[in-house]
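can u do me a favor
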């Protein structure tokens, strides 16, 4: 199902909510590393 939105017919608040719902969410992966001697570990988020 396709829905078309016309920003000219939307209030600023409605358009902002739509835009942030579409643009802001991004997949995040957790990347982990461990040193060869297992003395230290790191966990960091990575956006793609």
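np, heres the sequence
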């Amino acid at each position: 199902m396709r829905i078309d939105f016309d920003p000219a017919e939307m209030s600023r608040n409605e358009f902002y909510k739509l835009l942030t719902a579409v643009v802001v969410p991004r997949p995040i992966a957790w990347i982990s590393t461990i040193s060869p001697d297992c003395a230290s570990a790191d966990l960091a988020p990575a956006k793609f």
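Residues 8-47 form one domain. hope that helps!!
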